[in-house]
Structures are given as C-alpha cells and as structure tokens.
Design brief:
Elements (H helix, E strand, L loop, with lengths): L15 H12 L3 E4 L6 H16 L5 E4 L17 E2 L4 H9 L3 E5 L11 H9 L4 E6 L10 E4 L6 H11 L8 H14 L10 H11 L5 H9 L4 H13 L1 E4 L4 E6 L1 H6 L10 H6 L6 E7 L4 E7 L5 H8 L3 E2 L3 E6 L4 H15 L8
Parallel strand pairs: 1-2, 1-4, 2-3, 4-5, 5-6, 8-9
Antiparallel strand pairs: 7-8, 9-10, 10-12, 11-12
Helix pairs in contact: 2-5, 2-6, 3-4, 5-6, 6-7, 6-8
C-alpha cells in the first residue's frame, strides 16, 4: 500500500506516484468517484470536477453519493448524472465494490461515507483495485492505496486543482470544470474568510475566473436562493432557540424534527446557522445541533485558538478542522445531546477567554 501524506512543506502532488496515477486511470475499466455522507459544496464540487477532468482524458466515470444534497447545489455542470446510494443501494454498492479505481474525495475514513461505508471498505480489501483518497481533513485513517492528504489546505477542490496541475491538464480547465472547483473553494473557505485560506487559494480563484465562468452567478445560486420557509426557520432559530453563554463565550442553536417539519425544512436550509451564532460579538465557540431521523447531528465552529475538531472527535463521534467540525450521535435524544453540550461548555471556559 502506497500511503502519501503531507510532511512539512512536501507537496504530495509532486511525487512520481501521482503522475503514474494518470496512466493508471486511463487503463482502468471502471472508475468511480465517491464523497461523504450529507455532501456539501466541496464534496460535490470536487467530485464533479474530477469527473470533468477524467472526461477530458477520454475516461468514463461515475459519481456516486451516499445521499442527496441541497437543491442550491443542483446547478453544477454534470450533477444530473450523480447516483445516490440511498435511492438505489444495491446497484450503487455494486458500482463501488467492482470499480477498478475508486476515488474517495473529501473524507478520510470509510465510516464518513455513510451508507457507502461497507462498499468502500470492500473495495479497499479487494485485490486488483486501486483506492485513492484525496482529502484535507486532519488525521486520516490509513484505508486507501494512495492517500493524498493535506490538512493545511482549505478545500478538497484546491487539491483537485493541484492534481490537474500535476497531470499537466491546464488546457482542460473550461468554464464547467472551473465552476465546480469554484463552488468547493468558496464554500469550504467561507468565501475566503477562514484562516485556512492561503495565497494559493486566491491564485486558483484568479485562474478559474479567467475561464469565463460566472462567479457572481455561482455565489448568488449558493447564498441567495432562500425559500420563504427557510427565512422563517432562520428567524425562529435565532429568536427562539439561540442560547448564549457570554461568561463562557459560547452559543448554541438547536432544532428538533418537529420544528424542522413545521417550516418544511429541506436539505441545506440550516446551512450557515452555526455561523450566525459565532458572529455574535464576544463568542468564540458555537454549536448548531439538530435532530435527524436516525441520529442527532451537529456543526461546530470556533474562532482563534480553540479546536472544535478536538471537541467533535472526543465527545461527539466526529472530526473536521481546527475551526470547523461536525459530529453525530446515534441512540440519543436531541435534548440529551444539548444537555451534554451545555454541561461541557463550562469545562472549556478558560480556553475560550481570548480576543481573536
């Protein structure tokens, strides 16, 4: 198993093994691209961008996702061909398990692939197949044959762009491919406001804009496409469900299934709520916790030195980045998870007493 991690200033995409992948992809009979459960803009953007790259090489591929994603991402070129495990579990599992080459994008452990986890693990165990992980989250599990991991990068779309450069495919960068890359770039960097943004992030954006893709339209499709019920849900969450703990510089928003149904919530409707809590003056830690059909999910955010990745990994079966992470709790009620969070917050209080 060839495992390539970022070490110091080393660029994993400069290695000979990465160049060899290009030839290997061309000879593969079946190529499948996957991403994580509850796919976001970076997951969809990186997966479809890679599909466009492969198509430019004359390689047919299939993008599969564990489940559906928010409608505000349905504009991306190529998204009509995406297949979903929750809609056709047997067929999609078979595609993953039988692939000659499987790409795992924007997740660093099979368990993050939701309903696809077992199929991904089978692909890893199968002889003759090659599993490639491309991801930017911390502490990846050593599950793939080739692991291209760079936790210092703000988005997986930036890693796909670096793969495009490593493969010498700059001429393949058209407006459709650029649009997919731009989606992941802006969503996972918070429109370039997160600390993970590097000079190379803006260099990449400049190149993408030069293709003629409509960046203003893309930003509007992602951030300005709110249904009335979504606006009402946001107003309710902020006015009725926001708990602020100023002495601990923390805030929580929680929503039950009944409350979500009351406002006809759809996938993506609660996107960004956690950032509203973090935006309160003096708050350094924020959590958005919501009840799902089979679990309680949460998004965690922080500013500055406090690591929400550690919080997610230690207490809520999750992971992510230093200032942006998530978790999920199965077999617990919403109230029990909220109560646990409220109990934990004072224990972190001393670590949260700083001005960013």
């Amino acid at each position: 198993m060839v495992q390539m991690y970022l070490s110091g200033m080393e660029d994993v995409f400069a290695r000979e093994e990465v160049a060899a992948l290009k030839a290997q992809v061309k000879s593969a009979k079946s190529v499948v691209v996957t991403s994580h459960r509850s796919p976001d803009g970076d997951a969809i953007g990186s997966s479809l961008a890679l599909k466009h790259m492969l198509s430019a090489m004359g390689v047919s591929s299939t993008v599969v996702m564990p489940d559906a994603y928010a409608t505000f991402l349905h504009w991306m070129p190529g998204q009509d061909s995406v297949r979903f495990h929750d809609a056709e579990p047997e067929a999609v599992s078979a595609l993953v398990e039988e692939a000659d080459m499987l790409f795992c994008l924007d997740y660093n452990a099979p368990s993050r692939a939701g309903g696809l986890a077992e199929a991904v693990q089978h692909a890893c165990d199968k002889e003759g197949s090659t599993v490639v992980m491309i991801d930017h989250h911390q502490e990846p599990e050593p599950f793939a044959d080739v692991m291209l991991s760079d936790p210092t990068t703000g988005s997986t779309c930036e890693l796909i762009y670096r793969l495009l450069q490593a493969w010498g495919m700059e001429e393949a960068l058209d407006a459709d491919l650029a649009s997919c890359l731009y989606c992941g770039l802006i969503t996972d960097t918070g429109s370039f406001r997160f600390s993970s943004v590097q000079p190379s992030s803006h260099d990449m954006a400049s190149v993408l804009l030069a293709t003629g893709m409509d960046h203003s339209r893309i930003h509007s499709l992602i951030y300005d496409a709110c249904r009335l019920e979504q606006v009402q849900l946001t107003a309710y969450a902020l006015s009725q469900k926001l708990q602020v703990f100023p002495e601990h510089r923390s805030a929580i928003i929680s929503l039950s299934l009944e409350e979500l149904k009351r406002y006809s919530a759809q996938k993506g409707d609660t996107e960004g709520l956690v950032n509203r809590a973090l935006a309160i003056e003096g708050i350094n830690f924020a959590a958005f916790i919501k009840e799902d059909v089979d679990r309680v999910k949460m998004s965690l955010r922080s500013r500055g030195a406090f690591s929400v990745r550690d919080v997610a990994a230690t207490h809520f079966n999750g992971g992510g980045h230093h200032n942006a992470a998530g978790g999920a709790c199965e077999g617990e009620s919403l109230q029990s998870v909220v109560d646990r969070m409220v109990t934990l917050i004072p224990t972190w209080s001393d670590d949260l007493q700083y001005d960013d």
